[in-house]
């Protein structure tokens, strides 16, 4: 009983806000939700317990958090598009309620569906869809019409559930869709007659559409005023003003992340606090203005609202208004709620502790967004503020200094201390969320923080406001901000030559992460502690977390989930080979930079022993240049021409030719195709020249077949015979197309497992149901990336292949499920 009483007392000392955040995080780890009845029961129990004293109040807060988070999850899942509506043409009427984003293949926007026109009886309901409107092809290569926020459109759509690629350690787009309330993804199709795509209303007024139209106006005016500047300069300034981060080219996001200043290129808490302070200061001066008081008659402003309340209210209004204009991200939410709670505490005469303010702000953010604790920005924001408060709390109050130079020196010292605290605490979080350490971050932030926060951001904000009402003055201020931004980008290139500013580190273990957290607390402790520098030693296990070594004798194959395409990491003999690099979707969007490189870095992999580009098609070669730019690759093998950019970029290149072999340890690699003879085909010359690689180890064998088709399969059978083709694992030729996987070829290879790398509901309809039937009737286990996400196969001597399927083995309630046997 004494132990239970002690536990209750300790629980009662827990800040309720911190418990609310922890429970919301815990709910998001569930593989399935308990149902609405259980959610309401948890809410009722929690609300009943909260008035019964401090320990009961804390427990009740946890129950309320669990009930609320599960209930919100149930509501969002219920809004999702029904599987029966996937792939059907629906003519809907809806309002564009977000700033449309142009990309090289068309336009993306968020559409709030109001009702269906055809068929009216199967409408998905009043839900939100993320819609792409692509450019035409061939003769009809026209661009989509201009779409503005607030417009009401009738659109002919083909929708699907918000399925996305999924790989361990990388961004979960399905979670983001749930968080944003996106029930479906889709694209606009041609419509005729009553199903024609057409604009119905120029502006459907709502608070959201008014804000989004204002954001569009600011973006367009700024783009016009900055038309003579580089795209990256325009993009940075637009991102600083309205939070449109898509305006920044992808290459520069890589630079910002490597140098550790990515937080400055979004609407940070620092920018919001600065504006809120400006609004509070202006309100205070207005309330004390004698000129204004003389014109208020018998009702002077201080008698209507005390000065301190006016400062707080106007500062808060500016902060919330700007945060809404900037997209209402996690850092913005955290800052606004902290300003509100701290202001209320001070105005109410209750000097609440920083821990209470932070935890309460976190709880409010989680009440509005129960999925927030899974976002890196949530922890980065709160951890940075907590570190600054912790480190600063040990400083005695300093009296005012009359000497101006001494005040400047003191301000610089305080700024350096703040930078030290924030940089230190963000180190373990950067390794956890981004698998890297920005080595040049202290240097880059030392000049970037004052430059962006004190000069560039205020000039950009003032210029954006003026450019609407006084174009010449706004253009002048924006031009000055652009010149400073260009200087900033040049300085970042200087401190990050050749992309060396960041160090890739494997995802840390729980022990290393906890030890690093203790080390940070030791180094930032506000009270004198013995051997403070010893705390730095606690960070070493985090910084030197070793990557999982490739097996020496077995074989590990990882089919990376890259959508419609191929990318397989082969690990054996203590070395690594990447077979294909996934698709390139646009000039600034390829699987190499978007998925493969981040996935390898999360594993702590900084180099590859070999890269194979099986053939020219973009769903296989699209990410190769990004891999070569970001990783050290010993040699490249391909069937590409000698003048291809991938070949000329590689440090060493070999053409894959039938009969060539090499060994890594006791693993033998052999090219089975193509040969030196010319390929005479009419269907797809590039597919016909796919590099076919056979891997033999004492633990088993694998056949990576690229996109070969029936003719090449027959040629392999004729040349090698069934015995030489037999393998335990087969990477299904041409993604399961009807042109490949002939019965004779499958009988010869006779794999135990076949891997299909395909995109969800891809336009080629891979894998074909008839082809799937050929595999299943032979008892071959089917693994496919659209149903299983990232797939890892382990082959060990004397054991059957062991598969890890990320979507199923790491289940979360929001992840879209599908039948692996469906075509």
Brief synopsis:
This protein has 823 residues and is α+β, with helices and mostly antiparallel strands. An eight-stranded mixed β-sheet has the order 17-16-15-12-11-10-25-26. A seven-stranded mixed β-sheet has the order 18-19-20-21-22-23-24.
Structure explained in plain terms:
The protein is of the alpha+beta class and 823 residues long. Helices cover 47% and strands 17% of the residues. The protein is built from 30 helices and 26 strands. The strands form 5 sheets. The chain has an 8-stranded mixed sheet with strand order 17-16-15-12-11-10-25-26. Helix 7 (231-242) packs across helix 18 and helix 15 runs antiparallel to helix 16. The protein is globular and about 100 Å long.
Largest sheet: 8 strands, mixed
Number of strands: 26
Q: What's the number of helices? A: 30
Determine the fraction of residues in helical runs and give it as a percent range.
40-55%
Beta content comes to 15-25%
For the CA atoms, what is the radius of gyration?
29 Å
N-to-C CA distance: 60 Å
| Mean pLDDT reading | 87
The secondary structure category is: alpha+beta
Give start-end ranges of low-pLDDT stretches: none
Any idea what the shape is? globular
Widest β-sheet, arrangement of strands: 17-16-15-12-11-10-25-26
Q: SSE layout and pairings?
A:
Layout: H1 2-12, H2 16-27, H3 36-49, H4 54-79, E1 89-96, E2 101-103, E3 106-118, E4 128-134, E5 152-160, H5 173-180, E6 182-188, E7 198-201, H6 207-225, H7 231-242, H8 250-259, H9 269-288, H10 290-294, H11 301-304, H12 307-325, H13 330-347, H14 354-368, H15 376-392, H16 404-434, E8 436-438, H17 441-469, H18 471-495, E9 502-504, H19 510-524, H20 540-543, E10 555-559, E11 568-572, E12 575-579, E13 584-586, E14 589-590, H21 591-602, E15 607-613, H22 618-621, H23 624-630, E16 632-638, H24 645-649, E17 653-655, E18 661-664, E19 667-673, H25 685-688, E20 692-697, E21 700-704, H26 710-725, E22 729-731, H27 743-749, E23 753-756, H28 769-776, E24 781-784, H29 785-788, E25 791-795, E26 802-805, H30 806-809
Parallel strand pairs: 4-6, 12-15, 15-16, 16-17, 21-22, 22-23, 23-24
Antiparallel strand pairs: 1-3, 1-5, 2-3, 3-4, 5-6, 5-7, 8-9, 10-11, 10-25, 11-12, 13-14, 18-19, 19-20, 20-21, 25-26
Helix pairs in contact: 1-4, 2-4, 2-14, 3-4, 6-7, 6-17, 7-17, 7-18, 9-12, 9-13, 12-13, 13-14, 14-15, 15-16, 16-17, 16-19, 17-18, 21-23, 26-27
